[in-house]
Known about the structure:
Elements: H1 2-7, E1 8-10, E2 16-18, E3 21-22, H2 32-37, H3 50-65, E4 71-74, H4 78-87, E5 95-100, H5 103-114, E6 120-123, H6 132-141, E7 145-151, E8 153-154, E9 159-160, H7 163-171, E10 176-180, H8 192-195, E11 199-203, E12 215-219, H9 221-229, H10 239-246, H11 257-273, H12 275-295, E13 310-313, H13 320-331, E14 333-334, E15 336-337, E16 346-349, H14 357-373, H15 382-393
Parallel strand pairs: 3-14, 5-6, 5-7, 7-10, 10-11
Antiparallel strand pairs: 1-2, 4-12, 8-9, 11-12, 13-16, 15-16
Pyridoxal-5'-phosphate binds near residues 26, 77 and 155.
Amino acid sequence: xxxxxxxxxxxxxxxxxxxxxxxxxxxxxxxxxxxxxxxxxxxxxxxxxxxxxxxxxxxxxxxxxxxxxxxxxxxxxxxxxxxxxxxxxxxxxxxxxxxxxxxxxxxxxxxxxxxxxxxxxxxxxxxxxxxxxxxxxxxxxxxxxxxxxxxxxxxxxxxxxxxxxxxxxxxxxxxxxxxxxxxxxxxxxxxxxxxxxxxxxxxxxxxxxxxxxxxxxxxxxxxxxxxxxxxxxxxxxxxxxxxxxxxxxxxxxxxxxxxxxxxxxxxxxxxxxxxxxxxxxxxxxxxxxxxxxxxxxxxxxxxxxxxxxxxxxxxxxxxxxxxxxxxxxxxxxxxxxxxxxxxxxxxxxxxxxxxxxxxxxxxxxxxxxxxxxxxxxxxxxxxxxxxxxxxxxxx
Length: 395
Ligand SMILES: Cc1ncc(COP(=O)(O)O)c(C=O)c1O
């Protein structure tokens, strides 16, 4: 009770002052440097002041995507870049392979269907990542597949795929490889050029530490060539329009200028830390989180887990939806729930982007307090202790 009343101090008006925390796998907490950058007055996007900012952002994005290819920015959420990767590569009647191991893989197939395509769906059991051999078999069965659409981290399950190995098998076919790295970018290594990936899509509200509103598509020469022939309808999401403008460090339409200011500041922080260190930090924090969860006797849902997020099974007798509500309403901590078949069965927590040791201990203490509040028997501090010990032993 003592701890709970500390978290919810009554104000003079009798309201409760809550300090809130967001621990979802996007949108994520935004660092003060980024928030401050976004407090700048609006400037015009076709002006000598804006052009160098966008140029710097584009170079920073190339660093994050590990590519020399152009990285286009759309003022949309990540799904806009996903949609762009379907409409700019394909034509009516084309064959595409969608790897579906969760809600976001499903989105590839849904977008294709919305444009009248009949996607070949490679179903993967939830919690697992697709195996390169499965993709290879699908490509051998359908050698006329034009594009393979897959996901680096399937955020609905936490499963992380071996994109390097997948790229090796796709390379043996005629297909281009498209990777949804919206949650995986920066949380787990991805090297677009070295691994020869054709298209990588991302979003600002994940480890890029920026508010929602910007989506990115990095495209290889092969992908650009396909975009010149593709016949699916497109206007706002046309790569040809975006690429033509990108050559002049501009966008075809009014960009989300304020969010771009924020992204500029975030990219500066990422470059200062160094991408290898960003990857290592995420891996270390996620391992510490898992150590804490296991020490509490809780199950990790994900079989092929990775550093992007931790999916925790609601223990026997605890409803996952009620658990989320307690976390949010009693403790001020917003985590994400399960989707589809695992609705009410798991919660998902991430240390993504602007995260350190204390984001792990905050999340774990919230897990402990909320479960304890719901009658689950545990010794407070067990998870936090295990996580701290892990961090101490793995500097
Ligand atoms: C892997 C993945 N793909 C796609 C999306 C969809 O992105 P958005 O909600 O920004 O459209 C998300 C968002 O959570 C995601 O994690």
